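TA notes, week 10

Several of you asked for a full example with nothing omitted. So below is the full record: structure tokens for the whole chain, then the designed sequence directly under it. When grading your own attempts, check the secondary structure regions first.
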């Protein structure tokens, strides 16, 4: 009897071990951190298999839609994002909804007019493309920082500023560019200072995140800038090679950073990671990263993910993000080939068979309770 019970017990353990292995093999985040109880992990889930903001004909985002940013201002919630139409220029528009009762899903007004168009001036720092908006409220005005790209200008990329006092009309700063040779801004006002986060390219071909501060939101002391976040450089890690397009929000005593993570490419992230900080300088990575991964082959976000923008509504965290993919379902030779290209090559098939759109995912839980 004792031997029989022992054999049954051993068989049960072996079966359980196999089950855990199989589940872990299906979830790359579990395989990485060894966690088996997903209810005790921060994991975002898609609300839909379709984009939240798809590319839409007869709009400024008929070809692609990307780079979500969100802010509350004068009783409204602002959803500001980049689009591109058949003219081939990236420009910035917005949606709004009353702040009271907002859930991040339903937006009352889809403004048709651009709020930050490409400049028509020959020497302007943003006369080619306008993209990567970051939004903050300062001194009763809405500040929108963005990446500007220029024609016949060296460097051709910089961070610029447009300001609105009423949330309707935006005026570009006369001191643009604000920061040269940098892209993808994120901005936080903390203890009276405006903290700007942005990407600079390492000589070895990967992105790192730097930060500089300003007392007026315009003059940033880049001479005193600090590198505050970089790739993990750990072999096989989801963020081993490059990190990009950070977003930051505050809850309790911590600031939380969501970031796009590249395992092997400079700017083609497969996953979203999470980190936290009390001082906006020293960042602690979440031990059970990533918190979100790209979609399956054939889905609209099968290729890459950028700009994970998080805001909390009640007990739910809502994340808007830019995803790229074919959305062709990979059911025939053409779609399978296009899907493989989107998944296996950096920007594979981009603007041909693969396009950026904005998705939505949610997490019902507590960052503060589960960040361990």
């Amino acid at each position: 009897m004792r031997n029989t019970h022992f054999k049954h017990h051993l068989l049960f353990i072996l079966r359980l071990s196999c089950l855990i292995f199989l589940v872990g093999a299906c979830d790359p985040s579990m395989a990485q951190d060894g966690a088996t109880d997903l209810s005790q992990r921060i994991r975002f889930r898609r609300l839909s298999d379709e984009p939240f903001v798809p590319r839409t004909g007869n709009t400024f985002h008929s070809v692609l839609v990307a780079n979500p940013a969100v802010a509350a201002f004068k009783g409204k919630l602002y959803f500001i994002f980049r689009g591109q139409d058949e003219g081939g220029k990236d420009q910035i528009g917005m949606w709004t909804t009353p702040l009271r009762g907002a859930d991040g899903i339903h937006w009352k007004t889809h403004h048709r007019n651009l709020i930050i168009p490409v400049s028509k001036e020959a020497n302007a720092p943003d006369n080619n493309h306008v993209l990567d908006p970051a939004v903050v409220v300062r001194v009763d005005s809405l500040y929108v920082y963005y990446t500007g790209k220029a024609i016949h200008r060296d460097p051709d990329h910089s961070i610029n500023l447009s300001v609105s006092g009423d949330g309707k009309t935006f005026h570009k700063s006369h001191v643009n560019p604000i920061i040269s040779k940098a892209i993808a801004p994120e901005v936080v006002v903390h203890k009276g200072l405006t903290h700007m986060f942005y990407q600079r390219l390492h000589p070895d071909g990967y992105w790192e995140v730097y930060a500089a501060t300003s007392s007026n939101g315009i003059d940033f002391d880049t001479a005193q800038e600090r590198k505050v976040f970089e790739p993990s450089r750990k072999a096989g890690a989801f963020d081993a090679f490059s990190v990009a397009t950070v977003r930051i929000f505050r809850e309790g005593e911590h600031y939380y950073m969501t970031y796009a993570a590249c395992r092997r490419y400079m700017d083609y992230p497969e996953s979203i990671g999470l980190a936290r900080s009390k001082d906006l300088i020293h960042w602690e990575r979440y031990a059970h990263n990533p918190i979100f991964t790209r979609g399956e082959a054939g889905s609209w976000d099968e290729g890459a993910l950028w700009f994970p923008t998080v805001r909390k509504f009640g007990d739910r965290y809502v994340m808007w993000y830019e995803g790229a993919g074919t959305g062709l379902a990979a059911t025939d030779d053409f779609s399978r080939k296009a899907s493989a290209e989107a998944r296996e090559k950096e920007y594979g098939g981009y603007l041909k068979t693969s396009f950026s759109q904005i998705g939505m995912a949610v997490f019902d839980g507590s960052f503060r309770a589960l960040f361990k």
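Residues 2-26 form the longest helix (25 residues). Use that as a sanity check on your answer.
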